[in-house]
Structures are given as C-alpha cells and as structure tokens.
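Q: Hi! Curious about what Pimeloyl-ACP methyl ester carboxylesterase looks like structurally. Here's the sequence.
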Amino acid sequence: MSNPETDSTTSPYGRGTLPKRVRSRMVHGVNGLDVHLLEAGYESPGRPLALLLHGFPDLAYGWRHLLPLLADAGYHVVAPDQRGFGRTTGWANQYDTPLAPFGLLNMTRDALSLVSALGYRQTAMLVGHDFGSPVAAYCALARPDVFPSVVLMSAPFPGPPALPFNTAASEASPVQPSTENQQLAAALAALTPPRISYQQYLSTRQANEDLWHPPQGLHAFLRAFFYVKSADWPGNKPHPLQARTALELAQLPTYYVMERGQTMPQTVAPFYPSAAEVGASPWLTEPELAVYTEEYDRTGFQGALQAYRVYADADLNAELRLFSGRTLDVPSLFIGGQRDWATYAAPGALELMTTKATTRMGDIELIEGAGHWIQQEQPARLSALLLAFSQEAGGRQ
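A: Let's find out. The predicted structure is below.
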C-alpha cells in the first residue's frame, strides 16, 4: 500500500469539493498524533470552539456541509479525522497491534489534547456522531470543565460499564458481559439462515481486506453502503426492539445483522442505487464520494475498524469501569435520523441514556428526512438544533 504520510502531504484535500471558507490543515503533536482537520470560522480569533467528532466509516469530510453553517453563527468549527482514520497519522495500521491506543479513554485524550493544542480551555459545542458519540460522552464524563455540554448523534450512550455491586456475601460469580455476547452470537448463528452481528464481523481479521478490495470496487461498495443506511433507501423503517435477543435483532436490516458467511460488500451490493437515485441524493455527489474512495483506497479500513474490536476487549472495558456509577451531568442532547436504525440497534440503550446515564438530557430529536448520515443528509435542520441547544446550554458564555 502507499504511504499515508507521503500522500497526505502531496495531494490536495477534497478534490475541489470543500465549501468556501473551509480549510484542511494538520496539527502536530496531539497525544502522539499528527491530526488532520477541517475547520471554518478560523479567520477571526476569540470565537468559541465547536468540536465535531465523526464515526465509521466517515471522516472529517462528513461534516463539510455543517462547518460553514456553524461558522456563520459565530463559531470556530473544527472537525478532525479521528485516530485510525483519514490523514491523521501516528497510529499503527495493522490488525496485530495493541488496541489500547484506540480505546475510548485514549480517544478522549485525543480530543482533550486537540482542544488544548488549538489554544482553548473549553469547547462551546461538542458533537459526536456514531462512534464519535461514545468518545464525546466520555469527554463530557471525564472532563466536564473542558466539555461543558455534549450532543450525541445516532448512538445512544447507555452509561459506563458498572462494577458488580453488593456481591461480597454471594458465592456465585457475577455474569460477565463477554459471556452474554458469546451467548448472543451463538443464538444468532443458530437462526435460519445463520446470522452474525455487523460488529462481530467488522472485528474479524478479514474485514479490512473485504472492505478495502471488494469485488464491485471500493467506490461502488461505499456508494451502496452510504445509500442503504440513508433516508433514501425505502427499506429503513426503524422501530424500538423489545430485548437484546437473536429473534429481536433479526428484525434489523442485513447491514446490521448480516447473513453469516457474507461480507459487508456482498451484503449491501443488492441495494446499489440507480443513477436516478444517486442523482436524487445531493448530499453525496459522485465527486464527493470520490473523496471517501480516495482516502480509504490509500489507508484501508483497519484503523477505522479497531473501534469495533475495542468494544469486545475485556481490558479496555475494565478500564472504563473507572466511571462505574458516574452519570453524564452536563447539558446533553441526543439527535437521530427518523430513518436511522442506529437509535434502536442496541435495545434498551436509548432508555438507559435518558433515565440513568444522564441527568440533564434534553428532548430526543429525530430529524425528518435523515437516515444515519444526519450531518450530510440534513445539515440545515441539524445546525438549527445544535444552535438552539447551545444557546440554551449557555455554550456561548
């Protein structure tokens, strides 16, 4: 493969698709990383900072439509390529590498270090989408002084893993979550046809190669993947699931609960949109999709996929128990897409977030006309919600 360090400094970013007044640059020495970011509203000093954290398989580029809108409202808006993604370097791009650098607490340190490197003591707005959502949640959980409000998008935050409570007098060992996950995986495999969760599949050694070099080509795979998880695909009609059981999870689309033995490119290939459907999706034009294709063609997906392996790592989950019983006490907001299954993909997480994990959570906002890619599909509606929440939370003070 080509060298990300060399390519990232020689090829201009965005293929001419970045909005005016949005720039691409590198910030060096951020928790061991050289961070690539997109920013807007940087021209005048003293503006409050808005930090936007993307998910999988997104990039800083996914915020391109939102950056100018928040800058017009008076913010210095920064969207980094997170560790493992895009043109940010300083992370190991192999499957057989320690996972600790990709753990949620180190990704939290990445965000904290970036805020400091940019010359800020705190953010006025912190937004995390998809995998960026738990990173943002732990930022606000660990350092509410630096992150005094938080917006979680698409992935509800059920709270940190809990330590076993009041077990000293019991002879039995408490059931470990890893055992529950193994039992669920076995139950999914026993279905007809046999199924596997996308998280388990994306944690496997072969997933990177499957996604990086799919038979239909990388561009066609990404087009189908973005399409099938958007509001444009008519099959997305999400609803709450009753329990975390194989039968309930089997109601999810196949891009969440896959047929066992199928790769993700094989799973989404039947849903490849027609030329007319692509033309009707102004939020991701062919030149814009080409930016994703170019970036992932250069790096592959392994760095991005480490996040899924982190969730199953016993040591990294044990590390999070430092926050056992701790609630998210800053003003917070959850935003999902009305046509996004991610809100319900982890049964019970939404309810846990609103009843136990947070103490100052606002209304649950589900944006009409948005699937999973809210900031690309409906940036104006998202911007209006973010600005209203930020004003209410006192983020501009």
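A: A fun detail: The radius of gyration is 20 Å.
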